[in-house]
Amino acid sequence: MGFSFRAAALVFGMVLGAQGAAWAQEGAAPKVTVAAAYSDEMIQDVTFIGKGEARDKVDIVARVSGFVEEIVVEDGQFVKAGDLLFRIETDTYEANLAARQADLAQAIANRDLTEVELARKSELFERDVGTEADRDVAFANNQVAIANVKIAQAAVELAQLDLNYAEVHAPFDGRIGRSAVSVGELVGPNSAPLINLVRVAPIYVEFSLTERQLLEVMQAFQVSVGEVANNPQAPDVFVTLPNGTELDEIGRVVFADNRMDPATGTITVRAEFANERGLIIDGSFLTVRIQDIEPTTVLLIPQAAVQRDQRGEFVLVVGQQRTVEQRYVKLGRQVETAVVVTDGMREGETVIVEGLQRVRPGVQVDAVLAGTATEE
Asked: In a designed cystine with 93, which of 4, 163, 170, 303 is the match (CB 3.0 to 4.6 A)?
């Protein structure tokens, strides 16, 4: 959408048509070039500072103690869930497993023996040869033996787990960082992490909305805070990378917090991006842009008309009496060579775009519409 000279000319003509001839007769007035404020439809957006946030990231630690026997992966490598990363020496854990398996075999044999003894004592009791006490003792011995088998089975399972934990695997797809250990180094559950793993894709981008911005979104799309996430009517989310280029992916809002942060007066919102090329990095700062679905009518003026002082941005407006007026305005986003005016002007009012240095508020000027030919 560019600056429409035809539309501006029509507006300018309506405002100043009757004054044109009189202006030309007064050569003493400084000549300036003016343009009319005009309305147009555009899709509004708002920008925030966001931060890349991995869906999953973890510091991988050793779950058993031992010396590092092998580092299987290279630093910075992409890995799949289940890929082997480190191998810790297994001799101790293999021997412990064998011992626990032997204990289990012994417990099973003892259980079998008590079952035979219980059957014999029960038969003797039924034949009135044995005593009830002997049968009860045999039954109790059998129950103890059964419990000992379960204890031995649990010990075998624990020993097997320790042996399995001697191999460290990736819990999910992602990219590993730099290894913090070397081959031969002693590691364990209480030592520093071996390495970190970050899921690269998809990835979240978190940013914060003020209370006013949140209410505007809720009113615009007629949804509650909880319905902002995963809503097909929610606005599209775009990000600009740290090098200034906009990512060619559209994000969707997947989470909005359930409370405002009382310290900042903002609420955290999270958008998800496919991040197929891995250009969004966990922890990186990005510019987030939310775009409306439907266009809205806005008022625009040329950027060249805008000046600034200590009070803020202002323009020089030419009134119907050819008199220059200094007008402070509130501006929105820039659109090519124009800028959106959110407050301070009405459609059809004219602003000086050339010759600003030759005029001051209160003087009369000889105005020429931008883009029209003039005779010297």
From this structure: 163
Cα(145)–Cα(139) distance, rounded to whole angstroms? 10
Q: In what order do the strands lie in the sheet with 38-42?
A: 38-42, 296-302, 338-343, 330-335
How many other CB atoms are found less than 10 A from the CB of residue 10? Answer: 14
| Spatial separation of the C-alpha atoms in residues 156 and 252, rounded to whole Å | 49
Mean pLDDT of the chain: 85
Tell me the C-alpha distance between 90 and 299, whole Å: 74
Ramachandran class of 336: left when φ > 0, alpha when ψ lies in -120 to 50, beta otherwise? left
Across 92-120, average pLDDT: 95
- Please give the Cα distance from 16 to 23 (Å, whole number): 10
Entry pTM: 0.63
327, 314 contact by CB (below 8 A):
yes
- Domain 46-56+201-291 CATH class label: mainly beta
Q: Round to whole Å and give the CA distance between 303 and 311.
A: 18
Q: What is the C-alpha separation between 364 and 319, in angstroms, rounded?
A: 9
Lowest pLDDT segment from 234-238, 242-246, 338-342, 351-355: 234-238
List own/partner pairs for 142-146 with CB under 8 A and 24 or more apart: 142/111, 142/114, 142/115, 142/117, 142/118, 144/114, 145/107, 145/110, 145/111, 145/113, 145/114, 145/115, 146/111
Two structure tokens written together for 24: 């030309």
pLDDT tens for 53-101 read 999 999 999 999 999 999 999 999 999 999 999 999 999 999 999 999 9
Q: Quick one: fold of 62-88+166-192? A: OB fold (Dihydrolipoamide Acetyltransferase, E2P) (2.40.50)
Reported as type and span, the H/E element at residue 39 is: strand 38-42
CATH classification for the domain delimited by 5-43+296-369, as one of 3.30.70.260, 3.40.50.300, 1.10.510.10, 2.40.420.20 = 2.40.420.20
Is it true that domain 90-164 has CATH number 1.10.357?
no
pLDDT tens-place string over residues 154-172: 999 999 999 999 999 999 9
pLDDT digit string (tens) for 18-58? Answer: 444 444 444 578 888 899 999 887 766 678 889 999 999 99
